[in-house]
Amino acid sequence: DAKQLGPGKYRFFIADMNRRNAEQQRLEQSLRRALENGGIEVHYQPKVRLVDGHIVGLEALVRWTDAERGVVPPGHFIPLAERTGLIVQLGERVLETALRQLARLHHLGHDDLHVAVNLAALQFQQPNLVERIDGLIHASGVPAAALELEITETTMMRDIDHAIAVMTRLRERGSHVTIDDFGTGYSSLEYLKRFPIDGLKIDQSFVRDLASDANDAAIVSAIIAMARTLQLEVVAEGVETAAQWDYLRRHGCQLAQGYYFSKPLPADELELLLQQNAPGNTPVAPDASEA
Ligand code: C2E
Ligand code: MG
Ligand code: MG
Ligand code: MG
Asked: How much is the pTM?
């Protein structure tokens, strides 16, 4: 409470707030410029089948490198982009880039791959979202079924009826819809049943201490069992160790993403990894059986 700080401290508090606002405004300006002049890229993290280490899909993750600041983490600029509305333009850039690069990968022979793109709450509220996605899919030439949209529970809960309507339309086109960061929002079983979804991604906070925390292990296996009962695809996020990989595989989780297999990669590095991972070649799966 500012009053209890005394008049001197209060002044510092205001000065600090002004400084932060000014920095936020500079960051916003820089992000705007990056959208116009370059500096925004998309990296791709493989989504891997746990039984055999085969790459089945990719998650597109935006990357911003600023001339002065260097790499700015999404955690710093996505919230800003959401507050300022820039996320609509940024999100569209990511969608367009991801679909174009996926078309190239399909052309190179990796034609079973899909790409998952994160949708922010504000994008989800755009009245023409589905039409814009239609346009980008059409321009890229990839089938709608090769696109997956990741939506958080929090986004879905903002306006449940609207969310259900948009998700239904996306799925009518053959695109997949998954719940991102599952377990960190409302996670009501009732909603899982009601929402038209194809899968869910177990949040990395539950995966992190899987091997050492019995509660997290129990939560993860319960989510997997429940998802399978509802015939949803399950992806574990943030898999970093052989022990996590092994636990997830033994408990029937189908897919994983995480540094243990691969970090998000720029498109050219991803192409090299995909060549090694092609069917017929020995999968580059880490051997989790020794964990
Ligand atoms: P997310 O969608 O849950 O993405 C997963 C995040 O976990 C990514 O962070 C990824 O790099 C990171 N990650 C993957 N494997 C591991 C691992 O083994 N260990 C750890 N510690 N982390 C791992 P990133 O790229 O920094 O993105 C953070 C969040 O920013 C994303 O979380 C997503 O919510 C948001 N974001 C990123 N790109 C976009 C985008 O294009 N659009 C929107 N709307 N949001 C985005
Ligand atoms: Mg995601
Ligand atoms: Mg996530
Ligand atoms: Mg997240």
From this structure: 0.92
